[in-house]
Amino acid sequence: MPKQAKSAGQRARTGKLRTQARKADPLERCMELWLGLFAAGYLLFPGFSGYGGISGSKTWCLYALAGLLLILGAGLLIRDLRAKRLRPLSPAQITALIFLGCTLVSAAFCETEQGSPWYDATAHEAALTLSLYVLLFLTVSRWGLPSERLFRVLFWALAVFCVVCAAQALGGNPLNLYPQGLNFYDGYGVRYKGAYAGTLGNVDIVSAFLALAAPMLLLHTRGQRPKEAWPCWLLAAVCVGIMLWIRVLCGLVGLVLGGAVCALVLCPEGKRKWIAATLAGLALLGLGLLWFLDLPVKFLHELHEILHGRFEDSFGTGRFFIWRQMLGRIPDRLWTGVGPDMARYSGLEPFIRYENGVEVARATVTDAHCYPLHILYCQGLPALLAWLSTVGLVLFHWVRNRRDRATAILGGGLACFLGAMLFCFSSVIVMPFFWLTMGLIEAKTNQLRKKEKP
Predict the structure, then answer these.
(1) Which domain holds residue 168?
(2) Crossing angle (nearest 10°) for helices 431-452 and 91-108
(3) Is residue 6 part of a domain?
C-alpha cells in the first residue's frame, strides 16, 4: 500500500509539472495542436469537387495549414532568439536545406516552355510545394515532439478513413467523391479511367499511406497486453485488408521490405543474426521458386521473366517503360534535371496499355513511379544526394535510438513507406506525412541528445 500511494503521488506531481509546462509554454502546446489538426484534417479533408479535383483541394489545404505552422514557427524562433537559446542546425536539417536549394536552382534553370516549375494548376509538387515540405520538416524537427495524444488523434482519424473505404467497398459513394451514379467498381477503366478510394484519391497513394500508418499501429502495441493492444491490431488488419481490396502492390511491397528492416533493427541484439539468416534464407527460397516456376500471376510472371534476363516495357504496369525513358534522358540534364514536377512537359512518350493487341488506355507520363528516380530526373543529381542524405541521417537516428518507443514507432512507419515509394508516384496528398514523420524523428533525436548531455 505505501508503495502504491507513493506511485500515485508521483503521478500526481508529474501531471502537475506537465500542466505547468504547458501553461508556461503555450507556443509549444500550439505545435502539438497543429500536428493533431494536420493528422486528422489533412487526411480526412476530401475537397469540394470530388476525386477529379482532390489534388488541387489538398494543395490549398496544405498551404493553409503550412501558413499556420510557419507563423507559429516564427513565434518560436523569436522566443528562442530573445532567450538566447537558439540551437545550431542538425546535419539532417542542413541537408534538407541543401535539398531545398537544389530544388530552387533546378526551377531557375528549367527550360520547359509549358507549365511552370514554381507552381501551376497541374504541377502540384513544383518548387513552391517542395519548399513547404522542407520548411515543415525544419519547423517540426526544431519545436515539435511526438506524443501519445497525437497518436490517438491519428488512430481515430485513420479509423474514420477506413470506415469511408469500407462503405466504398460495399458499393457506396460516401461524401459524393465519385461521379454521380458511379462507385469504386466503375473505376479501373470500367466506366472511368481512374481508381480512387478513401479521402486520399488515387489507390497508389492510399496504398503508400497505409504502408506508413499500419506499421505504426503495430509497433505502438509492443509491450502491451492483448486487451490493450487489440484496437491497434484490428485497425492495422483493416488497413492491410484495404490494400488487398484496392489491388495495389506498392504498399504491400513496402510492408514486406520495411518489415524486414524493422525486424533487423528492432529485434533483441542476441537474435539479430538468426533473424538476418532467416530473412536471407526466405529471400533465396523465394527467388529460387520464381526462377523455376512461372506462376500464372501477373507480377510473379514478370519477376520470373526478369530473373531470366527478359525485360519488357509493360512490366510493372508500364514502370519499366517509364524508367527506360527517364534513365536515357538523365545524362542530358544531370545536374539540374528538367525542373520540379516538369516530367509531364519533358517530351516523354505517353504510356499506352494494350489488351489483346487493342489500345485500352493512353496516359501522359507525369512521374517516375519511383521517388528517388523522380527526384533525379526532375531536380538533378545534387538534389537526389541531398535527399538521400537527409533520409539516411533520419534513419540512422532511428537505428541509434530504437529503444525509444516513439522513435521506434515513427521509424518503422518511415521504413515501410520508403519501400512503397520505390514503386509509387510522389503526390502532394501523401508526401507531407513523410516529411512530418521525418521531422518528428529528428525532433525526438534532439530531445534525447539534450538528455544525454551532463
Answers:
(1) 25-452
(2) 150
(3) no
